[in-house]
Amino acid sequence: MKVVGLIAEYNPFHNGHLYHLLESKKITKSDYSIAVMSGNFLQRGEPALVDKWTRAKMAIDNGIDLVIELPLIYACQSAEFFAFGSVKILDSLGIINSICFGSESGDIQSLDYIAEILYEEPEAYKKYLKSHLDQGLSYPKAREQALTKYLKEFADLDFSNIEEIISSPNNILSIEYLKSLKKIKSNIRPFTLKRIKSNYHDKKLTGTISSATAIREQLIRNPVLENIKHTVPEATYTHLVNFYKEHNGFNSLENYSIILLYLLRNSSSSILKNIVDVTEGLDNRIIDCSSKYNDISDILECVNTKRYTITRLRRILIHLLLNIDKKNINFLQSYGPQYIRVLGANTNGIYLLKEMKKTCSLPIITKFADYKKFNNDILNKMIEIDKKATDIYSLGLNKGKMNLDYLTSPYIIST
Amino acid sequence: MKVVGLIAEYNPFHNGHLYHLLESKKITKSDYSIAVMSGNFLQRGEPALVDKWTRAKMAIDNGIDLVIELPLIYACQSAEFFAFGSVKILDSLGIINSICFGSESGDIQSLDYIAEILYEEPEAYKKYLKSHLDQGLSYPKAREQALTKYLKEFADLDFSNIEEIISSPNNILSIEYLKSLKKIKSNIRPFTLKRIKSNYHDKKLTGTISSATAIREQLIRNPVLENIKHTVPEATYTHLVNFYKEHNGFNSLENYSIILLYLLRNSSSSILKNIVDVTEGLDNRIIDCSSKYNDISDILECVNTKRYTITRLRRILIHLLLNIDKKNINFLQSYGPQYIRVLGANTNGIYLLKEMKKTCSLPIITKFADYKKFNNDILNKMIEIDKKATDIYSLGLNKGKMNLDYLTSPYIIST
Fold this sequence. Notes:
alpha/beta; homodimer; 20 helices; eight-stranded mixed beta sheet; 52% helix
């Protein structure tokens, strides 16, 4: 039995994701696939277009065997923590042989070489990093430039295209996955697939493989579902149509505009300083911009600098919205993931769950209310944040209900 | 020189208000009129249809000589505190000879007789009140029944219609005005005008005098301004049209639905208990209902009982929204009003302001930024709540700006 692990947001599950699933199983020679998927709020600091159960349905109906939720304290974080939470969960299942992630480079050897440097942090690299940070560069930019210098000086592989490698978002994530595998000394074998046709940030709908960003943009601005039909598998389309029928729209950060304005304008420097990623000076910058503009995107643009990227700022907004502070997040993250929360499974997935009972190092939660049975205070706090996130996610939707974590069963189908 | 004081919300200034102004000047034989008017949030626990400056414009353009703002800590309170703040402000001006308020009864003698009982609280009355409260009646209901009993037993006037008198909202307010005059031992002479044609809570638009409630209902549900044109003076109509053009709508509690849902669902019993009027048990009732319904009016209906009236519940929501707690309100109220904030004046009003420099016992603020000059910490805290209320009021409007208190001058016209 061979199982491949995938890390995804499926926001929504499109033709590119289907290609990725099929190719991943092929190149890793796997019989089964398990995806660890973000819940209702995502790495880019946004609510998901459709809720986590709908996205799990899309994944299962498109051939993923088992979908597990990535806890919010990892899902809405920078690449480093997002990657660590995802890899650690896949590793803890005890049945994953390989993981396969998309990257712009498609070359596992060079990505792993870079990951090794970032993991080991040789002295020369550390020196370069510090000097770039001192120049006022954002952490990702400083890291990019330090790596470039280091590789040019010391690498035995050809890194003539290094700038390109380490400035591409999926390469960055891939490197973090590889770093995390090293950190936890995992036996999982990493693979990468070169991403095809569409760029990550591409907003135009092109051909049958479009970026999730382009699809979302289309669905939020002008929700004529027919327009994106050619970019997603049929199962996704059906679930999108049903979700749209129920809520008369999709979710987006804009649906929280008035709450965010309210929170920002009633925030103090001391509240903001307690939020993850709010470093010295950013608190006052946010307060100042919030009093000048009435629109969240105008506020973000006002705060945005080289050092404070829009994605980072959006994640700060989500943490403000969810009212989770730095101390709490750091404390919980220090324990690592505490549970395996099942969102969906097909017949194969049910079989995998049975196997996992023998191998998995974390409690498996299929019925939400069961979480209290484990008498684990850290687990409780971590999963209650997921519940709170769902309740606040519902606020952004027409007819959004409370307590969906208690009310919704995982999506189980027999195949 | 004779000056009549009026107490109003002008939400919006309609034909009934104009009639009230003209009749008040006539029966009190006054040359001048001064209105103390609620700011952006009102006694019924709602944001005003249009902001306080627009409502001041309506009042001035319809013949009021001077408009003064009632601080939020009095404006969004039960009749007792609303009345006290208003009467105290009018009294502190030092130039008011009479006040004239509308009432359903129109009989100042019987209203004043009742006010005297409520102010003096004779033993027999107190006993009746306690026994009705113990039965679980709301305070207004218990007071109504205790008064009825007391008057039937002791009064020398004819009080055969007492139930009718003390269950009518404008009589209740009138009694509170009279009680406040007694409390502060004011020399101002009270007058009352019998309200004509329309009932306070009447939602239908009838003839040329309609209730403000009916007019608001019409403007919020179906903002065709032509439909209410016959119920308001021309000046009001013009200002309503301009406001609508600027904001593409009017303000209402519904505009805060998502913020209120967010706040309610993230509230704890201990947060709610700190809000004015949240008595034992109401906190949990609110939390429970908030998790069951997605709509503020459904939540209010769920919480509503004999004891907890909808108006009281809406005021609780406004205090939650403005994040002002009981302790703070009680502390500030214990000092009484601290400033005379001018929102508008005509040539007569400017003359009155000059006269008041010799007579007024409180600092007069025409330019908002000047408030700090008085070096009065209580004044600062009280007026900063008005500023905060304006900023949150703006959130409910399309293109609502921050810091309007600093940016907007009083409406001054020469007549």
